[in-house]
Design goal:
The protein is an all-beta fold. It is 0% helix and 55% strand.
């Protein structure tokens, strides 16, 4: 199944902001049963610096800074993801589910 996901975060400030550093964790990661087909990030105002790295846990970290005066910051991401539930269906229930303690009567 293919999902198109759009996420927007918007900050409106009471007074102008001249300089800001930001970290975003908005890019979906690939995992068993999930593949990222497309990803775009749009930041307004335009960042002076932007970089991306993967952290210890495999999450994408996007760091950016705005170095112009602004009263609003808007970050929008668009992701296209394909999910294949059959790849991880077995991980929800062990093969011997009938042998688990909570499936047997407690009086035995």
């Amino acid at each position: 199944m293919i999902f198109n996901v759009k996420h927007t975060t918007k900050y409106e400030y009471n007074a102008p902001v001249i300089y800001c550093h930001n970290i975003a964790t908005l890019r979906p990661r690939e995992s068993k049963g999930q593949q990222l087909l497309d990803y775009k990030i749009q930041i307004t105002p335009q960042p002076a610096e932007i970089s991306e790295r993967i952290d210890y846990f495999g999450n994408y970290i996007t760091r950016f800074s705005i170095q112009t005066e602004h009263i609003e910051l808007k970050v929008t991401t668009k992701s296209k993801i394909v999910r294949d539930y059959a790849q991880f269906q077995d991980s929800f229930f062990p093969r011997h589910v009938g042998e688990l303690p909570w499936t047997k009567p407690f009086w035995h």
